[in-house]
Amino acid sequence: MKQPAATRQPAAACLYYSPIIHMEADLGSLGRELDARGQASFGKDFWQRHQRTVENFWRSVQTFLQKLPAEGLIVFQDGMVVGGEVGERIVREVAKNGSLNFQIVEELLGRGAILVQTEDLALVKAERDRLLRITQAAGTGAKLRAYLAYRLGKRRLLRQRDAFISRRILEELKPGGRGLLLLGAEHRVIPTLPPTVQAVALKDPKVMRAYHTLLLHPRRDPRELERLAGLLAAPVEE
């Protein structure tokens, strides 16, 4: 008796993923404010070394992605609340202002990648508004209150953003398809995805989070910070 043919499982989708470090150019007026406060808090020389780390990180990601076939690649970008032509105009504008992140995305789009809505506008706006309250607060007391309010709501807001991003990935990334997720290291989207989406990490988010934590630590270890910076700038292994 002839045995029934085995049910063929659909091919898994492939999602390249990299945590990101925001540059001043990514954040507009908020970025300029944060840059000024970074220099004031850490000193100009230290802050410039940090900026070089950020640039070296993006150059290593760019080198890998320039070799990646881009035709049909679905791009999920941190903070991107629209896709299509409007989203592409945003990418071109921010890239023109000097964002390496958006220059990379612009290059991928020029080679056939597809930009899609990744985030919910209301949630992204809520996050930005809370950060603005910190930077615009006058006086130590007001800044502390704004910071505490931000910290209290941050985790819940992050979970809501992650849930939305996860849904968007599953909506857009078809079986056998390929995507690229560029997202802040504090997000926890990858663990929420089903086995039908195989994630390929370009950079280790744990290294990124460790770098951020040490960068802000008042008694940071310079050697460890340099080691982490080297890992972030290292070539992406193929």
Q: Spans of 5+ residues with little confidence (pLDDT < 50)?
A: none
In what order do the strands lie side by side in the largest sheet?
Answer: 3-2-4-1-5
Number of helices: 8
Largest sheet descriptor: 5 strands, parallel
Fraction in helix:
55-70%
The residue-averaged pLDDT reads 86
Question: Can you give a write-up of this model?
Answer:
There is one protein chain. This protein is of the alpha/beta class. The protein has one domain (13-233). The protein contains eight helices and five strands; from the N terminus they run βααβααβααββαα. The protein has helices at residues 28-42, 44-66, 84-96, 100-110, 121-136, 140-172, 205-216, 222-233, and strands at 13-20, 74-77, 114-115, 178-184, 197-201. The chain has a five-stranded parallel sheet with strand order 3-2-4-1-5, with helices on both faces. The termini are far apart.
